Amino acid sequence: MPALEARSVSKTYTIDSRRMTVLDSIVLSVAEGEFLVIKGESGSGKSTLLSILSGLDRPDAGRVLLGERDITDLTEDDLAPIRNATFGFVFQSFHLIPSLTARENVMFPAELRGDPQAREKADRLLERVGLSGRATSFPHQLSGGEKQRCAICRALVNDPQILFADEPTGNLDQANGWAVLELLRELHHEHRTTLILVTHSLEIARTADRVITLQAGTIVANTGHV
Ligand SMILES: Nc1ncnc2c1ncn2[C@@H]1O[C@H](COP(=O)(O)OP(=O)(O)OP(=O)(O)O)[C@@H](O)[C@H]1O
Ligand SMILES: [Mg+2]
Fold it and tell me: How far is the CA of 42 from the centre of ligand 2 (A)?
C-alpha cells in the first residue's frame, strides 16, 4: 500500500477574475520509505503540491490518501494531530520560533503530544546533526546552516512517517546547502522515513529513488533517474 497518494488532485486560483490552474489532475503514489524528488520551474506548482499532500492546503478536486485514510475532507481539528505526529516539515525559511532556544524548538512538536522524552529526543537529534554545543542558542544566534539543521531535528522529533522538505537549501550558500541535503539523505537512510524533497540539485536528485518534474501543474516526467 502506498504511504501517500494523490488521486486526480487539482487546484485553481482566481486572480483578477482569471482562473489559473496551478495543479491539473495530479496522480501520484508515494511508496513507504521512498525518497522522491520533485523538481520543476518556478511557479510550476511544487509548493502547492507539497502543501496539499501534507494537509496544509486543500485541493479543489481529487483526493489525498494517507495510507488507507482519505484525509481530503478532514476538519482542521482532525488534521492538526495527524500533521504533528505523522508528518515532518522543513521549509526554505526555517520557520523556527525566535523566542525559543534550539533545543526548545526541537522539543516543541514532541511536547505538543505530551512526550515525556521530548528533551532526550531533542538532544539526541541535535547531537546527530552536530549542534550539541548550540542547544541553548536562540535562532538569531545561529547561522543559516545551523538553523536549517535545527529545523530538520524539529521535523524528526516525532519520528514522522513522511518528511516534506520544500527547497530546504534555498536560503543557504552552496556548501551549507549541500551539507543539509546530504544530511536529509543520510537521515532518510537511517530512519527509513518517506522523504519528499523539492530541490533543484541534480546531484541529490541522482540519489533519489524517483524524480518527478512538474510543468505548469502537470507531471511531465516521472523517472527512477534524472
Ligand atoms: N494563494 C495563492 N493565490 C494565488 N495564486 C497562487 C497562490 N499560491 C500559489 N499561487 C500561484 O500558483 C503557482 C504555483 O505556485 P507554487 O508556489 O506552487 O510554485 P513553485 O513550483 O513552488 O515555485 P517556486 O519554485 O518559485 O517555489 C504560481 O503561479 C503562483 O503564483
Ligand atoms: Mg515553491
Answer: 7
Torsion, Cα 194 21 219 179, to 10 degrees, reads -50
Pocket of ligand 1 (CB under 6 A): 13, 15, 22, 40, 42-48
Mean pLDDT of 2-12: 96
Average pLDDT taken over every residue of the chain: 94
Domains and CATH numbers, the chain: 31-58+74-213 (3.40.50.300)
Contacts of 74 (CB under 8 A, 6+ apart): 55, 82
- Dihedral angle of Cα 88, 92, 98, 102, to the nearest 10 degrees: 60
> Ligand 2: distance of its center to the CA of 166 in Å?
7
- The amino acid sitting at 20 is M
Cell output for 159: 519520528
E strand or H helix at 8:
strand 4-15
**Sheet containing 69-70: order of strands:** 18-30, 4-15, 61-66, 69-70
Q: What is the pLDDT of residue 25?
A: 97
pLDDT in tens, 42-101: 999 999 999 999 999 999 999 999 999 999 999 999 999 999 999 999 999 999 999 999
* Residue 226 pLDDT class (50, 70, 90 cuts): very low
- Which grid cell is 164? 516534506
Residue closest via CA to ligand 1's atom 28 equals 43
